[in-house]
Design goal:
- This protein has about 80 residues and is mostly helical.
- It has three helices and no strands.
- It folds into two domains: about 1-40; about 50-75, no CATH class.
- The radius of gyration is 21 Å and the shape is elongated.
- The termini are far apart.
């Protein structure tokens, strides 16, 4: 539905699109922020997931063959 509204307003120009969707996007990003921060406050140990030593240990155990598990699908 949102994409249909976007195409409808697109004919009016970028000013109208920005005016219509700017507040929606602001609410969207604010919601994501509040949910993310509340999740971190409930379980702060989730921040350990961004520790780069996990990647080092993963590649030490799997070598470059572990690349597809991280989203890399090209072959060397």
């Amino acid at each position: 539905m949102i994409i249909s509204l976007l195409y409808f307003f697109q004919r009016q120009g970028t000013k109208v699109v920005g005016f219509a969707f700017g507040p929606i996007m602001l609410i969207w990003f604010a919601t994501i922020t509040v949910l993310g921060v509340s999740g971190i406050l409930r379980k702060p140990e989730i921040l350990a997931a961004i520790n780069p030593s996990h990647a080092v240990a993963f590649f030490a155990a799997n070598g470059w063959k572990g690349r597809p598990f991280l989203g890399e699908h090209r072959h060397l």
